[in-house]
TrEMBL record, chain A:
This is Vacuolar protein-sorting-associated protein 33 homolog isoform X1. PANTHER family: VESICLE PROTEIN SORTING-ASSOCIATED (PTHR11679). InterPro entries: Sec-1-like_dom1, Sec1-like, Sec1-like_dom2, Sec1-like_sf, VPS33_dom3b. The lineage of its organism: Eukaryota, Viridiplantae, Streptophyta, Embryophyta, Tracheophyta. GO terms for biological process: vesicle-mediated transport. Belongs to the STXBP/unc-18/SEC1 family.
Automatic annotation (TrEMBL), chain B:
The lineage of its organism: Eukaryota, Viridiplantae, Streptophyta, Embryophyta, Tracheophyta. Residues 509-822 form the Vps16 C-terminal domain. It comes from the Eukaryota. Residues 8-412 form the Vps16 N-terminal domain. Keywords: Membrane, Vacuole. It is found in: Vacuole membrane. This is Protein VACUOLELESS1. Belongs to the VPS16 family. One of its GO terms (molecular function) is actin binding.
Length: 596, 844
């Protein structure tokens, strides 16, 4: 199965987006005549693997390399760098050029910036005195379709850059990406944003619409009806909790990168010592599509049922006489055998993690913190984790969860835990703590927390969750309903107005705007309920809501959204846009300062 | 009948009709073409007139100074200017495709004028040789010129847009050519200019690379005059013995040959369309020669200028502008005397219809089957007509016929009306761009509009572009720029109002471009006011910078949310202003400030420190120093030996000192202090143990390492130095002892005193090390029966676990434990059974 997802079932024509990106890339490569060495920044290479098969690139006379500090080894005279516009990569390139010059190598250099050239990068090239030797271009890749309902802007550091450095470049990128979507699918008439960054994105988006209007008269009805923007800052509780859906757990323990996990081949039952294999995880795998969003407990049951029924079929097959069509059905079922085996292997591997007492204790503690009823127990648990020098990231996840739900810690505790952290993990983490404090994730308490009010008002903690037959999104965390998705649930159903009071308790402003040429024809509350005829597109398709998470989204949240969209009485298909798929681990990691 | 009178004005040349309507009576006064050099632009363009200084003429009551005058093709004066250029006689004068007047004087200087007779700087020279040798002849085409010097050298400007002269190959002939023509680059195989020069008794082809002699049946003896057809395919040659020949441009075959009565070459030789050639001597009638049949003569008693067009020739005399063209087929079919073509009958039917005659119906019945083509012919003929009332009649005939056609493209008439309205509008004598419909199609509407705006007919251009559905941006933009140039006396505010009033007509127009023009005209304030209205920040910001509005640029860039634009402004100001001023500008502006800090953090540490110092953010400087100390530590030179630890500690102490300056940073201050102290101690430990394993590990790790190495005194010392709490100390020591599996020491440690956090660390350490026996030593000592129960459970002692749980009187716990046991057992076997179920024989 290919890593590039099949997008045929997407509610939007994402395939055309991807094909455009393919064409753009191929054009760049074709326009540079002759053989060339293509140097790709590794992370970007990962994203590109969702756009085009690297084997296809080789047809254009290309030798592929990954960007690193080492000089490029190639016999070709043309070196083409394909890199994101990041300052820190410039020193690699300028050192490559300098090293080539000192070796007397004469090469032609091209840099294609993704998604656009930026003056801060070029400035560094100028200061390094290599700018004039390089031909500079752009590869406008703003969006990568991860799956039929997920778009990623591939901005790994967006949250940290916004919150800590005050660098809002990623917000411009997001707005641009949405604006580009609008030029293909029409101006989105309803926009609802919550959180500072979300509102900024809306502002920039509106600005772009005035500066370079999308010609809405070309399109009869915009394909996307509503855009909901949620700033990650609004809900930092959810990503810090351990995800309990199948896909979420896979990401927590094995890390899903660009729609696949890499693990030892022995786990997948392939006996090749020490070899890693890549397992693609996307909706092209029918079984995965069925179980990815389920609570892991249920996944085990589903797999068991499937295996049992197959065994039964097999027994019948060998004991009784079958008609040809029955045989055919059986063979068809056998075709799903590789998928079954794959997921049974993965599930077993996961259960080695989930059955550990430490994991269960951690879940327990997360719930205790989210319940926010026993401060001291939580405090002591975290203190002990630090003293036992447990993995710093795990400590910080709980600590952030703790600090956010309490809107900070009293000064005494704050300073005490900080000191314990520095003593246990080293003073270099002063920078990490400083970053977390700037981002408001681990800070001194300045006002009373309103988490309890929010929790109660939005019914974030749901008792007696039936994970097998869920009736609420809380199933994804076995009892905790992710705040972000609760907000989306309300926003889709009735807009912000009925819940203004609660929104005010959460960080950042919220806005609700009407745009484009459709303002006059639709009433403000047209989105309410499924009954409104205007929401239905004439050809019977359901209208579409684009939910954008500024700062990243977890798989568990995506599962919760899919659950919402599958509910009866839900008139919308949801499509998700995110700066990056994150989990607590990867998000906390971005706050670590790298030295040197 | 009316039809007869139309055809009565035609002349027949072999089987083709020609007509020569007068387009305009010339409105100029006292212009005698014979006294002047005249340059007429094709496509009904303007006429430049200047007194010919190569002729001796009598001056009447006029100044001795020559005047260059530019007229519209109806003789309306557009502009004039006094000619006082040095450089000798004016040799060549011609209009380019974009209606620039090119004037070349003897010394090879090229002067350029626009239609407003304004000199376009800079003047260009054809080069040193031209300057020394004098230019004697110029041959122009739409976009270039070839000049001949007295010395027989050929120079060429292949593209007036680039104005880069080059020399063509030398002919090597002693005599100057009798005549020359140019084959335009777009018609040559090589894509370069080719000159055909009649030298001696043959023709040479000259281009940049070489010279070839032309062979062909048409070339027999000296050639006196040549002209190339407008499509570059044919050549007309006037020979020494008075014959006119037409040949293919490659000299293959003779298509026409006619013996003129004069052996003197004609003064002007011109193609009329592609069908015939005109010859003009100033004392005989104008002669038109076609491929067959007797030539035609046109009588004029005035000097003439022939202006070749794609579908005919305009004939300019002192008093009129005529257009000689072959009568279009559709017109012939309608108006030819005695024509019974369907179109003629349709036209006739309309006439009857207007007179309420029943014959109209009869006519229509006659042509029923071919009605669509009749309608089409009427429409086409209307297009070719210059007379408005005849256009109208023809269109009415078409419309009348259309009413009886079921399947005719209805918009044809509408389209033709549209086109004719445009053509009639520009044919107005004041505008005087007289285009035939074919010329209009060749020229394209956008070029026509460009010409109109160049001639400052903005309103008409605007109306036309609106009418034909083209973008009006070009027109409005040009208008705005011209308005600014022309309105030096209008104050900024009122001019702005005038401009905005029009600019708003066009959505998406670039205010920045207009502002840039204002700035170029020295109206910086107006530019600033205009750029304020530019919606696209990416255009607005660079312009603001270029007009020195740095503050505004910074604000606009920040508002746009485009960080790249903010950086653009930042780098600009950074380069231009002294640091303190730069700091002052960004300090109070969060986004620019943060972006600057973020950039400088990567690449300009020292400069960033200056910034923080100037803004009093000492703690930030301290953090920077602290970070530097780490970078120093990463330096590979520092890992071996320790001389670099000194500087590191110094940096940290500097940071510590800076933290002490502010009250809010006592925590950081203490941390820095401890860090410095830790490094010192670690350094000492490395010296004592002779192992480089301490530096840069944490305090806890240092304690563990000490214990693992068996150096309990050192561990104790670190503990007291850093006031490590008893709790942490117990965890660290227990884990360290478990790491080296020193179970006796662990037991001894447990008995030192009652552990401050109970025996849980001991139990955990033993269980983690998989030493059930050791764990059992401590489990009973756990105070809380629940903890005991869970500990037993973890080492698989279900009964003891249950006992402890029941002791705790905690039913919930008991239940959970049972469940865990059951689940664990189930879980472990579950997957085995799953796989068993799937492993069919023969299938895997």
């Amino acid at each position: 199965m290919a890593q590039i997802p099949n997008l045929d079932n997407s509610p939007l024509n994402l395939k055309s987006l991807r094909e455009q990106s393919q064409r753009d890339l191929v054009k760049i490569l074709k326009d540079i005549r002759g053989k060339k060495c293509l140097v790709i920044e590794p992370k970007l290479g990962g994203s590109l693997s969702l756009i085009i098969q690297t084997s296809l690139l080789k047809e254009y006379g290309i030798e592929l390399r990954h960007l690193s500090a080492e000089p490029v080894q190639t016999d070709f005279t043309k070196v083409v760098y394909l890199i994101p516009s990041q300052r820190d990569l410039m020193k690699f390139i300028s050192s490559h050029v300098h090293s080539d010059i000192s070796k007397g190598l004469q090469r032609e250099y091209y840099i294609y910036f993704v998604p656009r050239r930026e003056i801060q990068c070029e400035r560094i090239l100028e200061e390094e005195k290599v700018h004039h030797l390089i031909t500079i271009g752009e590869y406008p890749l703003y969006v990568v379709p991860l799956d039929e309902d997920i778009l990623s802007f591939e901005l790994d550091l967006a949250y940290k850059e916004c919150q800590v450095d005050g660098d809002t470049g990623s917000l411009w990128h997001i707005a641009k990406a949405i604006h580009k979507l609008e030029s293909s699918f029409g101006v989105i008439p309803n926009v609802r944003a919550k959180g500072k960054a979300s509102v900024l994105v809306t502002d920039i988006l509106n600005r772009m619409q005035t500066e370079e209007p999308v010609n809405s008269s070309d399109m009869a009805v915009p394909e996307i009806n509503t855009l909901i923007l949620i700033d990650r800052e609004v809900d930092m509780v959810t990503p810090m909790c351990s995800q309990l859906t199948y896909e979420g757990l896979l990401d927590e323990f094995l890390r899903i990168h660009n729609g696949s996990v890499e693990l030892d081949s022995s786990i997948m039952g392939v006996q090749q010592e020490g070899k890693k294999i890549k397992v693609p995880l996307n909706s092209s795998d029918k079984l995965f599509k069925e179980i990815r969003d389920l609570n892991f407990e249920v996944v085990v049951q589903v797999l068991r049922q499937k295996a049992t029924s197959m065994k039964q079929d097999y027994t019948e097959m060998t004991t009784t006489n079958q008609t040809v069509s029955e045989l055919k059905d059986f063979v068809k079922k056998l075709n799903s055998l590789p998928e079954m085996t794959r997921h049974i292997n993965l599930a077993q591997h996961l259960s080695t993690f989930t059955s550990k007492p430490s994991f269960l204790a951690k879940l327990d503690m997360e719930h205790t913190i989210v319940e926010a009823s026993s401060y001291d127990i939580c405090f002591e648990y975290i203190e002990e984790m630090i003293q036992k020098q447990e993995s710093l990231i795990n400590v910080l996840r709980l600590l952030i969860l703790f600090s956010v739900t309490n809107s900070g810690l009293p000064k005494k505790h704050f300073d005490y835990l900080r000191r314990e952290l520095l003593h246990s993990y080293g003073f270099e983490h002063m920078a990490t703590l400083n970053n977390l404090e700037k981002a408001g994730l681990f800070k001194r308490q300045e006002s009373k927390s309103n988490w309890l009010t929010v929790k109660r008002a939005l019914q974030l903690v749901v008792e007696d969750t039936d994970t097998a037959n869920p009736n609420d999104i809380a199933y994804v965390f076995s009892g905790y309903a992710p705040l972000s998705i609760r907000l989306v649930q309300h926003a889709v159903r009735s807009g912000w107005r009925p819940m203004e009071e609660i929104l005010k308790l959460l960080p950042g402003p919220h806005t609700e705007t009407k745009r484009g040429g459709f303002t006059s024809s639709q009433s403000f509350d047209a989105l309410q309920g499924a009954s409104s005829g205007l929401d239905k597109i004439a050809d019977g398709r359901r209208s579409l809501v684009l939910v954008v998470f500024v700062g990243g989204v977890t798989f568990a949240e995506i599962s919760a959204l899919r659950f919402l969209s599958a509910q009866e009485g839900m008139a919308y298909d949801l499509i998700i846009g995110t700066t990056k798929i994150i989990n607590g681990h990867s998000l906390v990691e971005t706050f670590f300062e790298s030295f040197g | 009948m009316a039809n007869v009178s139309v055809a009565a004005e035609w002349q027949l040349l072999y089987n083709r009709y020609y007509r020569k309507p007068e387009l305009y009576p010339m409105r100029w006064k006292h212009v005698d073409l014979s006294r002047n050099k005249v340059a007429c632009a094709p496509f009904g363009g303007p006429i430049a007139v200047i007194r010919d200084d190569s002729k001796i003429v009598q001056l009447y009551s006029e100044s001795a100074l020559r005047k260059l005058r530019i007229f519209a093709s109806s003789g309306v004066l557009i502009s004039d200017t006094v000619w006082k250029h040095p450089g000798g006689r004016l040799i060549g004068m011609s209009w380019t495709e974009d209606q620039t007047l090119i004037c070349i004087v003897q010394d090879g200087t090229v002067y350029r004028y626009n239609v407003h007779a304004e000199l376009i700087e800079p003047n260009v020279s054809l080069g040193k040789e031209c300057f020394e040798q004098n230019v004697v002849e110029c041959v122009f085409w739409g976009n270039g010129v070839v000049c001949l010097t007295e010395g027989g050298l050929l120079f060429c400007i292949p593209d007036f847009k680039v104005m880069r002269p080059c020399q063509l190959a030398e002919t090597g002939a002693e005599d100057l050519p009798n005549c020359m023509v140019v084959v335009e680059p777009k018609y040559t195989v090589s894509g370069n200019v080719e000159v055909l020069a009649g030298i001696g008794d043959g023709i040479l082809t000259v281009d940049e690379d070489g010279v070839h002699r032309v062979e062909g049946e048409a070339v027999q003896g000296p050639v006196q005059k040549m002209v190339v057809s407008w499509d570059g395919k044919y050549l007309a040659i006037f020979t020494h013995d008075g014959r006119i020949l037409v040949t293919d441009i490659n000299f293959e075959g003779v298509l026409l040959e006619y013996n003129c009565e004069s052996a003197l070459p004609p003064e002007q030789l011109a193609w009329c369309g592609l069908d015939s050639v005109l010859l003009y001597w100033d004392d005989t009638p104008l002669l038109m020669v076609g491929p067959r049949g007797d030539p035609l003569h046109y009588f004029y008693d005035e000097p003439l200028v022939l202006i070749p067009e794609c579908d005919g020739v305009r004939i300019l005399s002192n008093t009129s502008m005529d257009f000689l063209q072959r009568v279009p087929d559709s017109t012939v079919s309608i108006f030819k005397i005695g024509s019974t073509s369907p179109a003629a009958l349709l036209y006739d039917a309309l006439d009857h219809f207007d007179r309420r005659s029943a014959k109209a119906d009869e006519n229509l019945r006659l042509i029923r089957s071919s009605l669509p083509e009749a309608v089409e012919a009427c429409i086409d003929a209307a297009g070719h007509e210059f007379d408005v009332s005849r256009q109208r009649t023809l269109l009415r005939a078409a419309s009348y016929g259309q009413a009886f056609c079921s399947n005719f493209q209805r918009d044809r008439i509408q389209e033709m009306c549209k086109t004719l309205r445009v053509l009639n509008a520009v044919r107005d004598p004041e505008i005087a761009i007289l285009l035939s419909i074919n010329q209009y199609k060749l020229l394209t509407p956008s070029v026509l509009i460009a010409r109109l705006i160049n001639a400052h007919h903005h309103l008409l251009a605007l109306r036309i572009s609106e009418y034909v559905g083209m973008n009006q941006e070009v027109v409005i933009m040009h208008w705005a720029c011209s308005k600014i140039t022309a309105s030096l006396a209008i104050p900024d505010a009122s001019l702005l109002e005038i401009l905005l009033d029009k600019l708003k007509l066009c959505r998406g127009i670039s205010y920045a471009a207009v502002a840039a023009h204002a700035d170029k005209n020295g109206r910086r304030k107006l530019a600033a006011m205009l750029v304020e209205h530019e919606p696209r920040s990416s255009k607005q910001v660079p312009l603001l910078l270029s007009i020195g509005e740095e503050d505004a640029a910074l604000i606009k860039a920040t508002e746009s949310g485009d960080t790249d634009l903010v950086y653009l402004v930042l780098f600009h100001i950074w380069k231009k202003r002294p640091p303190l001023e730069f700091f002052g500008m960004i300090q109070a502006r969060p986004l620019p400030r943060d972006l600057f800090i973020s950039y400088a953090r990567c690449y300009k540490h020292e400069f960033l420190k200056d910034f923080f110092l100037s803004t009093g953010q000492l703690q930030e400087v301290a953090f920077l120093l602290w970070k530097e100390s780490w970078e120093l530590g990463k330096n590979p030179m520092a890992s071996k030996g320790s001389p670099l630890h000194g500087p590191r500690i110094k940096l940290i102490e500097k940071a510590q000192h800076l933290f002490s300056e502010t009250k809010e940073h006592t925590f950081e201050f203490k941390a820095a202090e401890e860090h410095a102290k830790l490094l010192r101690i670690q350094h000492e430990l490395e010296v004592i143990t002779k192992q480089a394993i301490f530096v840069d590990s944490s305090i806890s790790d240092t304690i563990r390492t000490c214990i693992v190495l068996g150096n309990h005194r050192a561990a104790m010392k670190v503990k007291t130095e850093f006031k490590v709490s008893e709790k942490r100390w117990y965890w660290l020591k227990v884990f360290a002892l478990a790491t080296i599996r020193d179970w006796d020491a662990l037991e001894k440690f447990s008995k030192e005193k009652r552990p401050p956090i109970g025996y849980r660390p001991f139990v955990e350490a033993c269980i983690d090390a998989d030493e059930k026996g050791e764990a059992l030593k401590y489990i009973p000592k756990l105070a809380d029966p629940r903890e005991r129960a869970e500990a037993y459970a973890r080492i698989g002692m279900a009964k003891e676990a249950a006992d402890a749980a029941s002791q705790a009187k905690d039913g919930e716990l008991l239940g959970r434990l049972k469940l865990t046991f059951a689940q664990n057992a189930a879980a472990s076997s579950l997957f085995d059974t799953l796989r068993d179920r799937l492993s069919f024989q023969g299938v895997s």
